[in-house]
Amino acid sequence: MALTLATRTTRIVASPTLQMAATVKAMKAKGIPVFDFAAGEPAQETPDIVKQAAQAAIQANFTKYTPVTGIDELKEAIIDTFRSTHGLDYEKSQILVSCGAKHTLYNFTQAFLEAGDEVIVPSPYWVSYPEQILLADATPVFLKTEESSAYAIDAASLEALITKKTKAIILNSPCNPTGSLYDRATLERVAELAIRHDLLVVSDEIYEHLVYDGHQHTSIASLSPEIASRTLVVNGVSKSYSMTGWRIGYAGGPKDLIAAMGHIQSQSTSNPASISQKAAVVAIREGQTFIDSMVQDLDIQRTTMVKGLNAIPGITCPTPRGAFYAFPNISSLMGRQHSKGIIRTPSDLAQYLLREGNVAGVAGEPFGSLEHIRFSYTPPMSVIKEGMERLAAAIHKLQ
Ligand SMILES: Cc1ncc(COP(=O)(O)O)c(C=O)c1O
User: Fold this and answer.
1) Is any ligand 1 atom within 6 A of the Cβ of residue 102?
2) Mutate which of 104, 125, 238 for ligand 1 pocket (most atoms within 8 A of beta carbon)
3) Do 297 and 72 contact (CB within 8 A), yes or no?
4) How far is ligand 1, taken at its centre, from the CA of residue 378, in Å?
5) Domain locations along the chain
6) C-alpha–C-alpha distance, residues 140 and 161, integer Å
7) CB of residue 249 inside a 6 A radius of ligand 1
8) Is the distance from the beta carbon of residue 379 to the nearest atom of ligand 1 less than 6 Å?
9) Which residue in 4, 250, 343, 397 is deepest, having the highest Cβ count within 10 Å?
10) Closest CA to 38 of 30, 50, 26
């Protein structure tokens, strides 16, 4: 039978980061050693206290459906953390717990966007924003930001993109893939524009705890009650507590929007896993020590990787302020040759590095860049050190 798939499936591609992760896993399964800087997850194990909470939940038979939007105990932990970290005050009806922050964002796009709507997405961007917007029949409108200005948002450029169709802007600070962090002044200008043009702000703060060099993460929602009332703050436990497999994300925001997102969830996935919810309560309430220690490790790994990358002729890499990705500029390697062809795109380079050096990174194209490649600095130091040597050797071989 010739299957005719829904046209929406033709608008998007499968997640390239997850695809690269699958390729790496397959290579490792064949016994090929891979220096894996593609993964978007911490190398640390999930904290023991979190695992124990999950085991206790199983023993207590907490294994059935829960309320669709999340258990009260977890919503209370989320409300407390929003209050203590950002001074934000939410009621339980303003909190939705979903199966990962990606799912939170998917619920948002389905609940808020219609055909013809536009959403402004600063570029480079996390790979799933445009695809999820497209799946909702809406249009991503990219706001180009520049490496030379640390990927800052220029308010005038942002305003120039706002039309009658614009419904929302997505912020991601700290940013995957650039590691940039918006300062308060930038957020104030974005907030002013959002209020004046009646836009919703989606603030994806999943990397909020992973900041370095004394930088501070500010949530745009914390600037004033007015901007808080038109902001959906998205977060989750995946990155901060090394819980990528547990699938818990959450959002705080306007009651009506949260309710609509909850309805979509109730007709699609139902509640996030009961056991994971119990584990997330402990992560959020008791995980600060884990974060502190992970950030210390990541900080040293970040410095080592950035130094290693900048030592390679043809590569320049700014120092990321947050998240756990280096985003080196590889544009001067375009046009260089190897035995099997010419490097014309970041994808060509990523494939060459994997083949020649067993080094895995994610090419810039799906993040909206033709000049960069993304390397996670989550692997242990020994892997980063040897990986950078292999990377240098592979690039040295290019003609
Ligand atoms: C910017 C950003 N937002 C959201 C997510 C989704 O995280 P999760 O669905 O694991 O909670 C990711 C994961 O890579 C991310 O990088």
Assistant:
1) yes
2) 238
3) no
4) 15
5) 8-45+289-396, 64-286
6) 11
7) yes
8) no
9) 250
10) 26
Residue among 106, 108, 128 to mutate when testing ligand 1 (max atoms within 8 A of CB)? 128
Closest CA to 124 of 378, 377, 363, 376: 363
Angle at 17 between CA 354 and CA 116, to 5 degrees: 140
Q: Largest Cα–Cα distance of the chain, in whole Å?
A: 63
Task: Dump pLDDT digits (tens) for 78-120.
Answer: 999 999 999 999 999 999 999 999 999 999 999 999 999 999 9
CATH for 64-286 is 3.40.640.10
Distance CA 183, CA 152 (A): 9
Q: Could you give the CA distance from residue 173 to residue 191 in angstroms, rounded to a whole number?
A: 14
- DSSP bridge pairs for 269: none
Pairing of strands 325-326, 373-376: antiparallel
Which alpha helices (DSSP H) does the chain contain, by range?
8-11, 16-29, 48-59, 72-86, 101-112, 128-135, 155-161, 184-196, 225-228, 255-266, 274-286, 288-310, 346-357, 381-396
Rounded distance, CA 214 to CA 267, Å? 43
Q: Which atom of ligand 1 is the closest one to the Cα of 17? A: 14
CATH H superfamily, domain 8-45+289-396: Aspartate Aminotransferase, domain 1 (3.90.1150.10)
Look-up of token digits 């007709």: 267
Both tokens assigned to 73: 């105990």
pLDDT digits (tens, 9 = 90+) for 1-48: 888 999 888 888 877 777 788 888 888 899 999 999 998 999 999 999
